[in-house]
Amino acid sequence: MRSVTSSPSGERHPSRLATTVIGVLGTVAGLTFALYLVGVLFEFRRLKTLGLPADQPVSAMPHDLLLVVGVRSLLVPVGVAIAATAAGFLASVALRTDRGAGAVQRSLSVAGLAGITAGAIVFIVLAQGSLRTEHVVLVAAGVLFAGAARYASGRWRWLPRPHLAAFACMLVVGLAVAYEHAMHPPVHFDHAIVFFADGRTKSGFYIGRASDEIFLAPSVGNATCRLLDVIFTKDVTRISLQRGKAIGGAVARHGNCTKK
Fold first, then answer.
1. Where are the beta strands (DSSP E) in 93-212?
2. Parallel, antiparallel, or unpaired for β 191-196 and 187-188?
C-alpha cells in the first residue's frame, strides 16, 4: 500500500494514514515535553521552598521521575479544567430553548450539572486550612470560566470554540494555584533510611536519584537541615521509604545536621 497520493499536477501528498500517524506522534512528543517541563518547574520549586540546592539535583534526575512529578502536579489543574469545561457545555445544552435539544438531553445535562456542583462542594469541604482557600479559588474560577463559555457560545463569532478556551484558561489558573501551593511548606517528600554496606545508616528526606547517586536531605524531625547529601549507590545495600511531610528551617548546628 502506498503512503502517498498524486495530485492532477503530479505532486505527491502524504496519505491520510501517514498524516494521522505523524499528528499522533507529534502530539505525544509535545505532551511528553510539556509534562517534563512542568516536572522540572515544580521539583525545582519544591526544593527551593525547603531551602535546598536545586540546580544540580534537578538536572541529574532521570526524565521518568520528572515526568511523574509533572503528571502528579497536573492532576488537580486538569481535573478542575475538565470539570469547568463540562459544566459550561452542559449549561449550554440545558438552557437551550430551540428544538435541537430534546427534553431527555436537557434532563441529562441538568443531572450532570448537579453532579459537578456536588463534586465542587465536596472538593471544598474535604480540604483543610489554606488548602480550602485554594479550592475555593479554583471552584470560583471554574464557575467564572464556565459561565463565560456559556455566554460566549453563539455570541462571540471571533471565538469559535469557547469551551476549549475555558479549558485552557482554567488550566492556567490551576497551574498557578498549584505552583503557589508548592511555594509554602510542608512539601511532600518520602522519608528515607539508607543502609550502607559497612553497617551505617543515615536518615532524611529522599529527594531522588540519578544513575549512580542518591540525593538525601538530612532532617531533624520534619525539618530539613538546608543541606543535601549525595550518596553513591555502590555504598548502599537498602533504602527504606515512608510517606512524610518536609518543612525547612532546622538549625544547621543540630547534631543530626552536622554529624558525618
1. 187-188, 191-196, 201-209
2. unpaired
**Contacts of residue 53, Cβ cutoff 8 Å, sequence gap at least 6:** 47, 228
The count of residues in the chain is 260
Average pLDDT for 92-114: 76
Which of 62, 71, 109, 105 lies closest to 215 in space, CA to CA? 62
Buried b / exposed e over 25-34, threshold 16 CB at 10 Å, is eeeeeeeeee
Mean pLDDT of 109-118: 90
Which residues partner with 239 through β-bridges? Answer: 194
Sequence-ordered list of residues with C-beta below 8 angstroms from that of 115, at least 6 positions apart, any chain: none
Are 178 and 40 in contact by the 8 Å Cβ rule? The answer is no
Cβ neighbourhood burial of 170 (10 Å; 0-12, 13-18, 19+): buried
Which amino acid appears at position 44 of this protein? F
Query: What is this structure's pTM?
Result: 0.78
Please state, in angstroms and rounded to a whole number, the distance separating the CA atoms of residues 174 and 78.
Answer: 7
Angle at 208 between CA 203 and CA 211, to 5 degrees: 115
How high is the mean pLDDT of the chain? 83
List the single range of 81-85, 152-156, 196-200, 228-232 with lowest mean pLDDT: 152-156
Q: Which residue has the cell 512528543?
A: 29
Nearby residues of 86 by Cβ (< 8 Å), 6 or more positions away: 112, 116
Which positions ≥6 away from 245 have C-beta within 8 Å? 186, 187, 188, 189, 222
* Grid coordinates belonging to 114: 448537579
